Amino acid sequence: MTDIELTEKIKKKAIELGAGKVGIGEADRCDRTPFFYTSPYTIMKDAKSLISICIPYPKGSLDIPTDDPYVFVSTFGNIKNTLHNKLREISIGVINLLNKNGYKGVSIDPVIPIDERRWMACMLSHSYAGMMSGLGDIGMNGMLLTSEFGCKIELITLFTDAPLDYDSIIGGTIFNGFCKECKKCVEVCPAQAIDSMKKPPYTIDLNRHLWGIQGWIDLSKIEVPPEDWINAKPTVDTVIPKYRGRYPKIKEYDKWRDEYDDVPFCLKCITVCPYGEK
Ligand code: SF4
């Protein structure tokens, strides 16, 4: 039987602990999904519900110069790290509440190890889980867009065996409305990684995207990746050694990525996105 009272308690608890918004969906909505990754039942055999929690970036924290990596990691990198730690704390608070009520809970960390052969995650996409929990819709830039904070958020996902009250899915509504008129992220992406003719979660070209977020644009001062990078198969791993030789400073970017919770070195499609701005 759906536990409406516990659902309300969970949402209240997460907000009290600092969450911006909480969405709850049926765990089954994340089974057999496009890139997925790992079934919720692999993570928790008797999972019933999915809980998505987001926390917004403080206003102004994304309006920073991105052309100086030292400034970038010590501002955005630190804030990203702090928000991730906050989400970890919130998830533990929610799991404790579930445990007190006789249920189990497991959280999937905000930083998921990347397996490029299975797109951006080897476990799950927090954005996809966010859409399945009714938290928002995946926009043209591949990020979860929430009506309150747009895509300027960080996310964590939990699975539980508690039978909670599910929010409705709003997938497609923002993409087919606001995004179709806007397309600012498509225009601004220096690597031309966003294809407005496709539908989420297929709008992003992974190879082009990696050129931006791994820091190669900064290092090479070349915005659109070279042909061999764009066409690299099965992944860009086949050409990365060549570029590492050409731009050895990438080692510093690797170190920062480890240190600052997988910090991406291009944020343009996030900072330009007007959705959710009052
Ligand atoms: S920038 Fe515009 S098109 Fe891109 S995700 Fe945001 S609202 Fe959608």
UniProtKB/TrEMBL annotation:
Domain of life according to the entry: Archaea
Residue ranges annotated for the 4Fe-4S ferredoxin-type domain, each copy included: 170-200
GO molecular function: oxidoreductase activity
Pfam family, one: Fer4
InterPro entries: 4Fe4S_Fe-S-bd, 4Fe4S_Fe_S_CS
PANTHER family reported in the protein's UniProt record: IRON-SULFUR CLUSTER-BINDING PROTEIN, IRON-SULFUR CLUSTER-BINDING PROTEIN-RELATED
Identification of the protein by name: 4Fe-4S ferredoxin-type domain-containing protein
Annotated organism of origin: Methanoliparum thermophilum
